[in-house]
Structures are given as structure tokens and as C-alpha cells.
């Protein structure tokens, strides 16, 4: 009787998904934010995180300089637990080159 050696299946390596790595153009960044604003208009924390994702894609240091805020305060304000002021949201949007839109409900 012969023994066959069964190979163990190769382990699949996974990496955490980072949406910021996928946001390469201003159009992609604007479409991403627009999707949040359209699909989840009452999710202030999600919209702030979306701005944070775009800021990381563009470069948090560059965004911090353009807004006049520190990198640390931007990371904190645009994090999952952050609660940025509306003034901060507007400054970040301007620094990112995106516009917020309004439409009749």
C-alpha cells in the first residue's frame, strides 16, 4: 500500500481594503463623495469618512497645508469617530477640489 502525500492548499493572503488607493483622479474622488451624498445623505460620519478617504488619496499633508489645519486634527476630524465642524468640511472640500451639491428633496 502506497501513501500519497496530499499537499496542503496554499494559504490565501488578504490585505485590508483601502478605498483611498483606488481614488486616483479628481473625477473618481468627486464620484465617490457624490455617491455618499446621494446614497447616505443623513450619514454625517460616513460623509466625513469619505472626505477623509479622499484626503488620504490626495495626500493628508497637502490637504492640511491647504486648509490651514494640522494633519493630526484632520485625521481625527475625518475618522470614524470624528465629528468635524461644517466649517472644517467646507475647508476640506475646497482643498480637495470637490463641491457639495444641493437638490430639492
Describe the structure.
With about 100 residues, the protein is mainly α. The chain has one domain. About 50% of the residues lie in helices and about 0% in strands. Helix 1 (about 25-40) runs antiparallel to helix 2 and helix 3 packs across helix 5. The longest helix has 15 residues, at about 45-60. The relative contact order is 0.15.
Q: Give the domain tally.
A: 1
SS strand fraction: under 5%
**Number of DSSP E strands:** 0
Number of helices: 5
The 3D shape can be described as elongated
Average per-residue pLDDT, rounded, comes to: 91
Q: Give me the Rg, rounded.
A: 20 Å
Q: Compute the separation of the termini in Å.
A: 76 Å
What features would you highlight for this structure?
5 helices; 105 residues; elongated; mainly alpha
Give a short summary of the structure.
Helix content is 52%, strand content 0%. It has five helices and no strands.
Topology:
Blueprint: H1 26-39, H2 44-58, H3 60-67, H4 71-77, H5 86-96
Helix pairs in contact: 1-2, 2-5, 3-5
